[in-house]
Design goal:
about 425 residues; single chain; 4-stranded antiparallel β-sheet; 5-stranded antiparallel β-sheet; alpha+beta
């Protein structure tokens, strides 16, 4: 479930924009010719630029804001402003790589010698890191998965399908079957998936899809739908990822609508959370081990929310670091684990936090520039291992149809040790 590295289709990447927006993204990747006229979303982009520039001095993850602004200006056809922002961003040495293949809005800059120099500078010293391996392969080739969850009590994994609009279950020993079958409940594309440890039931969130109907769904252990609730947003909107807090609350991100919701499981109501700044394409979301802190990832970093006081602030990434654009976000023994796309190249990261969760104390790259990070997305922690979807393949899906059948492949679930 990405949110914006194919920028700007919504303006967009996942966990969870609609299939229609994904198809626009794929089309942009196939064309590097800038439009001679203002893009259709120009006013929306300009509005975002004004907001971003207002908050720029107060965002600790400065490189993230510069990178997003650069892509916005390039999208609007202002290459000089985009280049100036990229130069400052790359100069921070925080890991940003303005790769046009991953950020199509930058393609109009490809012929510019100064841009090519910046790209070489950004890639210098960024050696591959390979610590993961494929642990299991789901044989289906047309799932286009986004969400992954695991029941830690029995090792049963759940995999959401954007294309087939169903949920698959499997174990690492080889059993694969449908948990929620296709077409049974008329679902929209399935994104985030989460297991309730109290009763082993499964919650899922869905994209808007062609029916423009994002929902929060609850299934029992047999895959029977027992609850469904429509998102309160207005188009464009979705429900991307989610996390459960006991029997009372669920927190979910709306990537396209730029919201973070608190869902009350008793009153069945959504509340739009008020954070210290606007969120830009929120995606991954996680709770601390004591369930008192909520971490929300968006394109500008990670916001830490104290659920007792409702105080919120951005986590400080530290020198030469960034928390920009995290798809799957997970808590593990005082650390955040994330599948990151906001730097312009996908990577799997681990960030050790300070005791109060306000700062990154140390960071480690777990996987980078390998075949397992070509198109990764969300994951799940089982024991001291992090399992993640290595090849969602979502950019081969256009208008909910497979663009190139020759590119289809089984779903690879990779694993990296966290010890």
């Amino acid at each position: 479930m990405r949110a914006l590295n194919t920028m700007i289709c919504a303006i967009v990447v996942g966990g969870g924009f609609s299939v229609t927006l994904r198809s626009q993204s794929a089309a942009q990747q196939q064309s590097s010719t800038p439009s001679p006229t203002a893009p259709a979303d120009a006013e929306k982009v300009r509005s975002e630029i004004r907001s971003l520039e207002t908050f720029l001095p107060r965002i600790p993850d400065r490189g993230a804001t510069l990178f997003l602004l650069a892509r916005h200006y390039a999208h609007l056809g202002d290459p000089q402003k985009a280049l100036a922002l990229l130069k400052e961003c790359v100069g921070l040495e925080a890991g940003f790589v303005p790769d046009p293949d991953k950020s199509p809005s930058l393609r109009p800059l490809e012929a510019n010698p100064k841009f090519r120099e910046l790209l070489v500078q950004a890639r210098r010293g960024s050696s591959p890191v390979h610590k993961a391996h494929v642990a299991f392969t789901v044989p289906a080739e047309d799932l286009f998965p986004e969400g992954l969850a695991v029941d830690v009590s029995n090792g049963l994994f759940y995999l959401g399908s954007m294309h087939r609009k169903k949920i698959v279950k499997f174990t690492l020993t080889g059993r694969v079957s449908d948990f929620v079958k296709q077409d049974v409940y008329d679902l929209s594309p399935v994104g985030g998936v989460h297991v309730d440890p109290a009763d082993h039931s499964v919650w899922a969130s869905t994209d808007a899809g062609v029916k423009q109907r994002p929902e929060l769904l609850h299934f029992n252990t047999q895959g029977k739908l027992i609850e469904r609730y429509a998102s309160p947003g207005k188009m464009p909107y979705d429900l991307n990822d989610l996390v459960l807090r006991g029997e009372q609350e669920i927190f979910a991100t709306d990537t396209e609508g730029h919201h973070v919701y608190r869902f009350d499981r008793v009153s069945h109501t959504f509340t739009n959370m008020k954070l210290w700044r606007p969120v830009f394409y929120p995606n991954g979301i996680a709770l601390s081990g004591d369930r008192q802190l909520l971490f929300v990832a968006d394109m500008l970093g990670v916001i830490r929310v104290d659920l007792g006081t409702e105080d919120s602030a951005d986590v400080e990434p530290g020198a030469h670091g960034t928390l920009s654009g995290i798809d799957g976000l997970y808590w593990h023994n005082g650390e955040l684990i994330g599948v990151q796309y906001g730097t312009g190249e996908y990577r799997l990261m681990r960030w050790k936090l300070s005791p109060n969760g306000r700062k990154v104390a140390a960071s480690e790259t777990l996987e980078y520039r390998t075949r397992l990070t070509n198109d990764p997305t969300t994951g799940a922690i089982l024991g001291d291992n992090f399992y993640f979807i290595a090849n969602t393949g979502i950019y081969n899906l256009e208008n909910d149809k497979i663009a190139d059948p020759a590119k289809l492949e089984p779903v690879h679930i990779a694993v990296v040790p966290l010890k």
